[in-house]
Amino acid sequence: RAAGQAGGALAAQIRYDVVVADGPDGVAEIDFAVADTRRGQGLGTALLAATVGAACESLGVRVARGLVLDGNTASANAFRRAAFHRAGHGTRAGRAFEIFERRIGGRKHE
Predict the structure, then answer these.
(1) How far, in Å, CA of 88 to CA of 99, rounded?
(2) Mean pLDDT across the stretch 50-64?
(3) 100-110: string of b/e by CB count within 10 Å (b at 16+)?
């Protein structure tokens, strides 16, 4: 988990949760948020790009996955700019979302 502050106020936060621990790669799902006053400044992209490698290494996974609700263009663009690719579409709890993934090099921890 990481958070960033600007001017004493929380600007953004990100969390990685392992959702698939077994298998050859392992997968961590990403949850991030940017404060309303800081949106549109590239902070989400910067946060994703700066944390994904170390988070996956620390968690022992090779795939980072983000679920972006349909219509959330800003979050989808942040994932794309942080070198994630669209890997599919799904539904959870009745809400449709796009799946973005990024594979991190190296071997999964055993």
Answers:
(1) 5
(2) 95
(3) bbbebeeebee
Query: Three-state DSSP class for 37?
Result: helix
Residue type at 41? Q
* pLDDT tens figures, 84-97: 999 999 999 999 99
For residue 68, the cross-strand partners are 98
Q: Which residues on neighbouring strands pair with residue 28, listed in sequence order?
A: 18, 64
What's the whole-model pTM score? 0.85
DSSP 60-92: T-SEEEEEEETT-HHHHHHHHHTT-EEEEEEEE
Q: DSSP 3-state assignment of 57? A: helix
**Strand, coil or helix: what is 76?**
helix
- CA nearest 66: which of 9, 107, 28? 28
pLDDT in tens, 19-39: 998 878 899 999 999 998 888
